[in-house]
Amino acid sequence: MTIFLILAPYGVYTFLMMVTSAATSVFVASAICLATIAVDVACGRSVKILAAGSAILFAGIGLTLVLFDPKLGSLGVKLSVDIGIFVISLGSMLARRPFTLQYAIESVPAETAAMPGFLTANYIITGAWTVAALLMMAANIVLLYFPGLPVWLGLAVAFAARNSAIYFTKWYPEYRQIKYGAPAGALTEAQ
Fold first, then answer.
1. b/e 77-91 (16+ beta carbons within 10 angstroms → b)
2. Is the N or C terminus of the chain more exposed, i.e. has fewer CB atoms within 10 Å?
3. Cα–Cα separations (whole angstroms), residue 189 to 21, 25, 122
4. Rounded average pLDDT per 10-residue block, the chain, 191 residues
């Protein structure tokens, strides 16, 4: 359920990009990010790097569309979002706080979070999301420079990259549990 809430702004943004303007899409996605932050705060959880960064990212792109460049194409908006997610993901690792760590800490007992491999596992999972964002970014760049390619190619790469990262996020904690004998639920339970 957690992973659904994490990805909800992106799912809504992607759907709305097909049926409405880019500005509306990113502003609605930003509002959903702010709503998830409000829910976290109301439930006594921390404000997440990914949610806050995404809210700022979507709002920034929306303001850019409204104030400076209303003719920025949907591919440009998608590329901007992918670059932003890549920066948030990579930046969280460079800041030594992989974004998955916040979700993981809130879903496991304190003794599990204190295990030596816990932080490493979160770096690896965040790395998988960083690679997924990089692949989506690369697909959009290819589509920008080779406009004759079918649009579904970018969508297929995005779908495959995102779903692979979701699968890895679910699979890797189980793998570590089997390999290293960690207690059940020792890593993220973002399912």
1. bbbbbbbbbbebbbe
2. N
3. 35, 29, 11
4. 79 90 94 94 92 96 90 86 95 95 87 84 95 94 89 88 92 84 48 38
